[in-house]
User: What shape does this take?
Amino acid sequence: MKSPLLLVGILSLVVVPFALSAVQAPGGDGKGAPAAAQGRAPGGKEPVGLDGGMKMLQGGLKRMQGALAANDFAQIAQIAVDMQRGAGAAKTETPWPAEKMADAAQKAEFVKSFRLAMIDLQRNLLDLEVAALAGKGDDVKKIVEEKLKPMRDAGHEKYNPEK
Ligand code: HEM
Assistant: This one.
């Protein structure tokens, strides 16, 4: 009667770590767990780098107009999540003006302040998601007009100035 028990023991040694690795699969490359398990919309693409993140943010603001006009709060919440992913992809990158800075301390400070500005953007995008889930259209509009757009404009002035 020992061998069935032994078999169960061996099987659990193999199956449990495999199951855990599926749950813990990192999001990003689309090669591991299914999209939903990685926190992506079905078929959604992962933004890559600063440029990819910014394009995702831009696409979100564009889709927002239609979603707001239709009072489609599920769509607004999805846009907020997509924009969070865009900001998340961008924030650990180096904005191009930093590459021209010879002074290492100045460069480090610039890169850090960029990251902090992107984190601030992420916080506002979380507020946007909360407002969408609560179905508060006025709050959504306020966050878009009074937070996201001014943050974009100020961010571009400092970190993506006219060349
Ligand atoms: C909702 C907010 C934002 C939107 C919609 C947005 C949109 C964009 C777009 C469309 C581009 C041009 C991308 C391309 O090359 O095709 C861009 C570039 C850039 N943005 Fe933003 N942005 C936002 C917020 C920010 C913030 C907060 C910062 C800084 C703290 C920032 C920093 C930059 C930088 C550094 C680039 C140049 C990227 C590169 O060199 O490829 N952006 N952004």
Observations:
- Residues 104-133 form the longest helix (30 residues).
